[in-house]
């Protein structure tokens, strides 16, 4: 049987393109033991070691640690299992980087402070249960002192609590960051408390208010279908009809105080809320959403007078 050609460490370096220093390190770590030593005690390798070096280099470039590579070479761990372990680590790292990028993008939308970045970073790392807690806390603040139906509130929390996957997309992360900022805004909380107080007030004719809302949405849908813009004269008529109907249902005059109340209940962030939930869940908005947005825009323009 012919004797296998012996390669010095320098020749092995030329064959593989890996520096001698690195090969010595691999050898010292037990990843590349020499097949024998020369009379001068130089390390000698053979063709099989060339293949071994290529495997070590491939695994190292994939980010596999030396301890795991040692197990693979010693047949204590299969190559498939080693790669699965590495893939899991890479995917976790990618998810972490996505969260960092989302926090940085959100911070750079304004003039960030250290507290802003710390808060945004914390928001991106919340679990689904912790996100649900944020939503629940918001509804608790809105419902404080308001006779809101508990079952209705629990349904709203369940419908809007984001259940993001383990590896959310950048769009999902950014939607969650924006939603968390909206929910923490004291002015939004205050405006939603005004809306809740009207919605659940026993002094308001709820049937009449619901009728005004239904008629307003139906008129908005019909106008939208014809291409009517929310800043048109026709839209103004629809908006005024709705506002007057809401005032009548509340037993109030259409005066400055009621118009201010309407401005607060028509906070555009209430609609944005559901847009963001749609991005996070991947579920489309209901067909009535665009009708509501059109009507909200028409009302906002009417109240600007």
Automatic annotation (TrEMBL):
It holds the Pfam family MerR_1. It comes from the Bacteria. Residues 6-75 form the HTH merR-type domain. InterPro entries: DNA-bd_dom_put_sf, MerR-type_HTH_dom, MerR_fam. Keywords: DNA-binding. GO terms for molecular function: DNA binding; DNA-binding transcription factor activity. PANTHER family: HTH MERR-TYPE DOMAIN-CONTAINING PROTEIN, REDOX-CYCLING DRUG-SENSING TRANSCRIPTIONAL ACTIVATOR SOXR. This is MerR family transcriptional regulator. It comes from Polyangium fumosum.
């Amino acid at each position: 049987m012919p004797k296998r050609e012996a390669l010095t460490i320098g020749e092995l370096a030329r064959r593989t393109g890996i520096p001698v220093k690195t090969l010595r390190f691999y050898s010292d770590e037990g990843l590349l033991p020499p097949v024998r030593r020369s009379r001068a005690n130089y390390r000698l390798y053979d063709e099989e070691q060339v293949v071994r070096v290529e495997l070590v280099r491939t695994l190292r470039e994939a980010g596999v640690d030396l301890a795991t590579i040692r197990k693979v070479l010693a047949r204590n761990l299969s190559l498939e299992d080693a790669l699965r372990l590495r893939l899991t680590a890479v995917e976790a790292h990618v998810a972490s980087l996505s969260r960092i990028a989302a926090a940085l993008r959100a911070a750079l939308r304004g003039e960030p402070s250290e507290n802003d970045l710390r808060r945004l970073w914390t928001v991106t790392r919340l679990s689904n249960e912790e996100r649900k807690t944020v939503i629940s806390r918001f509804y608790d603040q809105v419902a404080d002192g308001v006779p809101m139906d508990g079952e209705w509130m629990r349904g709203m929390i369940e419908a809007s609590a984001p259940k993001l996957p383990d590896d959310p997309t950048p769009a999902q992360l950014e939607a969650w960051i924006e939603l968390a900022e909206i929910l923490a805004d004291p002015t939004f909380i205050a405006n939603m408390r005004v809306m809740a107080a009207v919605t659940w007030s026993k002094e308001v004719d709820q049937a009449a208010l619901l009728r005004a809302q239904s008629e307003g949405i139906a008129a908005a849908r019909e106008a939208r279908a014809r291409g009517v813009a929310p800043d048109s004269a026709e839209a103004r008529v629809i908006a005024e009809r709705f506002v007057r109907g809401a005032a009548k249902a509340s037993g109030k005059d259409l005066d400055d105080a009621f118009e201010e109340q309407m401005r607060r209940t028509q906070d555009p962030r209430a609609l944005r809320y559901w847009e963001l939930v749609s991005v996070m869940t991947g579920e489309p908005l209901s067909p009535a959403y665009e009708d509501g947005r059109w009507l909200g825009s028409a009302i906002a323009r009417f109240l600007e007078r």
